Amino acid sequence: MARNNCKNLYGDLATITSKEENDFVKDLVRSVANDGDTGAFIKATYSTYMHAWTTSLYKTVTFSDWASPTWSPPTNTGRRYIHYCAMLGRDNDWAWVPQDCAESQGMVSVCERSPGRKECHKTSCYKLFTDTFFFHAIEDTCKNAGGYVLEINSKEESDFINGFLGRASVPWSKMYGALYRYKQIWLGVTDKASEGEFRLMSNGGNLDFENWIQGEPKTKRDSLYYAADCVVLNDLEDWKWRNVLCRGERALVCESTNVNGITG
């Protein structure tokens, strides 16, 4: 719920990475919180897999301001599994405290906008976000920004995108975290509707251009990848197309043919 509030504003929950940022956010929350607000969610969740607080998949927090640094999740809550989020707690002078992510009453969200990187070429404008996204969120994210998920319809456009991604001054290592090895970008192409028939996500149209790496896309004979319905650009393969499972978080480029380009 808290993260959705920010997504509706074309942003995300704020990631706090320094004392200066934390002090700024605390002062901001103090100044705008209503009497009934008990806490303010920020972008940090407890990963039972990593046994650590994370800001995204495999990315542990680099700064914290816990009211109780020795906190650990209960081993038996006696009810449903609890997904813990971090919030600034009023009762703790706005220090960080763990909170059930499902509890929203009396909570506000601290949101930030992603500056990203934008360029235009011929009839299209493109924006590379400085966050990573799960597949299920990419269409709405681009739609909210006034565009659609990146589509590459010619070799000329492919060459431009390769240069655009190479020039992009975004914090790749921060986006992908400690396991950062390569860059991958979602492409607006899928064969979810019919296995092996790749079409544009924006309108279901046929592909005018394809740029697969050798051996791609996956086929029904590749049983391990039978459900590999998504496509990404991979920097280690000269930004050629790779057929992947629609899992995990990857970087996102939105495209627009609107004269005003992509917002945000």
Tell me briefly what this model is.
This is Macrophage mannose receptor 1. Pfam families: Lectin_C. The chain is of the alpha+beta class and 264 residues long.
Instruction: Tell me the series of helices and strands, N- to C-terminal.
Output: HEHEEEEEEEEEHEHHEEEEE
CATH superfamily of the largest domain: Mannose-Binding Protein A, subunit A
**Structural class, judged by helices and strands?**
alpha+beta
How many extended strands?
Answer: 16
Mean pLDDT over all positions: 84
Q: How much helicity do the residues have?
A: 10-25%
CATH architecture field of the largest domain: Roll
**How many domain modules?**
2
- In DSSP terms (H or I, runs of 4 or more residues), the helix count works out at 5
Terminal Cα separation, in Å?
21 Å
Protein name: Macrophage mannose receptor 1
Organism: Elysia marginata
Keywords: Receptor
InterPro entries: C-type_lectin-like, C-type_lectin-like/link_sf, C-type_lectin/snaclec_domain, CTDL_fold
What do you see in this structure?
By secondary structure, the chain is α+β, with helices and mostly antiparallel strands. The chain has two domains: 2-112, Mannose-Binding Protein A, Chain A (Roll); 115-256, Mannose-Binding Protein A, subunit A (Mannose-Binding Protein A, Chain A, Roll). Helix content is 18%, strand content 31%. The chain has five helices and 16 strands. It has helices at residues 2-7, 19-32, 135-144, 155-167, 172-176, and strands at 11-13, 39-47, 52-56, 59-60, 84-89, 95-100, 107-109, 111-113, 117-121, 124-134, 148-149, 184-190, 199-200, 230-234, 240-244, 249-256. The strands form four sheets. Strands 2, 3, 4, 5, 6 and 7 form a six-stranded mixed β-sheet that branches. Strands 9-10-16-11 form a four-stranded antiparallel β-sheet, with helices on both faces. Strands 13-12-14-15 form a four-stranded antiparallel β-sheet, with no helix packed on it. The longest helix is centred in the first third of the chain and has 14 residues, at 19-32.
